[in-house]
Structure formats: structure tokens, C-alpha cells
Specification:
The chain is an alpha+beta fold. 34% of the residues lie in helices and 29% in strands. An eleven-stranded mixed beta sheet has the order 1-2-3-4-11-5-10-9-8-7-6, sandwiched between helices.
């Protein structure tokens, strides 16, 4: 059987499931973050088909999503988004994709919003994993909240490490943010061990028949050794065993990006591009 995007029949029903899943998860993660640090003022506001999320002024998660995708009053939706963020002394940011109404996009541009980041969303059915050679010195397993500290130190470090920065301490706000999107209800955290040492980790978010592979990284000293492939394979297998029907993932749009290459290797197909819009004027 050859997979293709057409075989998924990604229609309005799946889009609504995806929006419902996204909202369920941001609500759960916001509650988890508040339990870790109530001073951040984390909150989520339902607006039209979407929501506005605030996890702190410096959080990459702080943005609105699925705004301007229905038949509502777009002026009112944008005003609600801007009031939500400006009341928190935070610049408004909104994710857009091909389901965003062109009229709402024109409104954003007229108000000085411009794309600052674009990412690629990938899709594949949750069925058998293709035969791919995996490193035999890497083991991946699910971890729970008891092991959250080691997961956070591994995955958060993997995101911030490069040739110049290795083994730097993970700031408390960063640790809290990673906890909220790995150990809240609906999320499954996995940890990869290479030669019995924590080497990387990731998250599988599930619900509404969907599974999203997200929040994955590899420690600098373990990169290029097959850790990412092992993490993808483990989460795909978990999604299949859990009864999910469709798997999604997001990567950079850079064709040289290793994550994008690995998604294609595992049978993922490109679904769509999404752009983060920010008010620049």
C-alpha cells in the first residue's frame, strides 16, 4: 500500500478534530503550568474557532491559533486577541494556515501584521511503520511525572545546546514550560537512552483520533547517532497501539532540516504550511 495525503481525506471533520485536540491540550498544559508557577499568569481564552494562549511573554507557545477560520466577525475576533495580549503587555501573535479566511488575512496585513516564522506540517496514517534501520544502542521508553526532572533536563537542554553551549543549566521558567507540555493529561513523554545515558526525548499528544509528534530534541553529544529516528519510531508505534488514526508532526521548512528528512523517511507527507503572524508596525 502506498500512502499519500489524498488517502487521509483531511476534510472539515478532521480539521475540527484537530482544533478540538489543540484546545484540549492548551487548556491542560495551562493548568499544569499554573500548578508549577502561578506567578506567570498563564491563561487561555476561547475566541471563535480558536483560542489565544499566554504562557509568559518569552514563551514560544504564547500565540493565538485558528482565529479567523469561521464565519464570525473578524474585526471582533482580532480585537479580542489584541486585548488579550496587550492587557498582558505582550505583542499579539497569531498562527495562520490555508484554513484561515482570506478576508481575515487581509485584515491582519492592513493592521501591520507580517509573517515572522513559517513551519511545515506533516501527516501520515497511524498504521504499520516502514522498515527502517535503527541504532541498536538506543532504547526509548515512556516516562511519567516521577522522572519528569530527567526528561526536562534532557529535552530542554537538547533544544538549547549547540557547539558553543553545552551542559548549560535549564532556567526554571523553561523547565516549567517543558513540564506543562509533557506531563499534563493527553500528553505522553518518552525518553531515549543511548548506551544507557539519557540522549533525547519527545512527546506524543493524543485525542480525537489524532496523534501529534512534538517537543522532541537530542542532546548535542548524541546527535547524528540515530536518536531522532528512534524517537519517531517509538512514538509512531505508541500511537498505533493506542488506536490513533492519523499522525501529525511539524518541522522547519528548510529542505536540509534533518527532522524533515526523517519525517519523509517514516512515510509522512507534507500537509500544509503555517505562518506565525506578528504585528511589526
Amino acid at each position: 500500500m502506498t500512502e499519500s495525503v489524498a488517502a487521509f481525506n483531511w476534510n472539515a471533520d478532521w480539521e475540527n478534530r484537530y482544533r478540538a485536540l489543540s484546545y484540549d491540550h492548551v487548556v491542560a498544559s495551562t493548568q499544569a503550568l499554573l500548578q508549577r508557577d502561578c506567578t506567570i499568569g498563564a491563561s487561555v481564552l476561547k475566541i471563535g474557532n480558536g483560542y489565544a494562549l499566554y504562557h509568559g511573554p518569552d514563551s514560544a507557545m504564547t500565540a493565538a491559533s485558528s482565529i479567523g477560520t469561521g464565519d464570525g466577525n473578524y474585526q471582533q475576533e482580532l480585537a479580542a486577541v489584541e486585548d488579550f495580549y496587550l492587557s498582558r503587555a505582550c505583542r499579539p501573535r497569531l498562527w495562520t494556515n490555508p484554513t484561515t479566511n482570506p478576508e481575515f488575512l487581509r485584515l491582519l496585513y492592513s493592521r501591520g501584521y507580517r509573517p515572522v516564522t513559517t513551519v511545515q506540517t506533516w501527516i501520515r496514517s497511524a498504521w504499520r511503520i516502514p522498515t527502517i534501520s535503527l541504532a541498536d544502542d538506543i532504547a526509548v521508553r515512556v516516562v511519567d511525572e516521577i522522572e519528569s526532572d530527567i526528561w526536562i533536563q534532557t529535552v530542554a537542554a537538547g533544544f538549547q545546546e549547540n557547539q558553543e553551549t553545552v551542559n548549560a543549566p535549564v532556567p526554571d521558567p523553561t523547565a516549567d514550560a517543558f513540564f506543562s507540555f509533557a506531563f499534563a493529561p493527553g500528553f505522553t513523554a518518552v525518553l531515549a537512552f543511548r548506551n544507557n545515558q539519557p540522549a533525547g526525548g519527545g512527546v506524543l499528544a493524543q485525542g480525537h483520533g489524532l496523534a501529534i509528534l512534538r517537543t522532541a530534541s537530542t542532546r548535542f553529544q548524541h546527535r547524528g547517532k540515530g536518536v531522532q529516528r528512534a524517537l519517531i519510531a517509538a512514538r509512531l508505534q505508541y500511537a498505533i497501539e493506542s488506536g490513533s488514526q492519523v499522525c501529525l508532526a511539524t518541522t522547519s521548512i528548510d529542505p536540509a532540516d534533518h527532522s524533515a528528512k526523517n519525517m519523509a523517511l517514516f512515510g509522512f507527507q507534507k500537509l500544509r504550511l503555517s505562518s506565525l503572524m506578528e504585528k511589526v508596525s
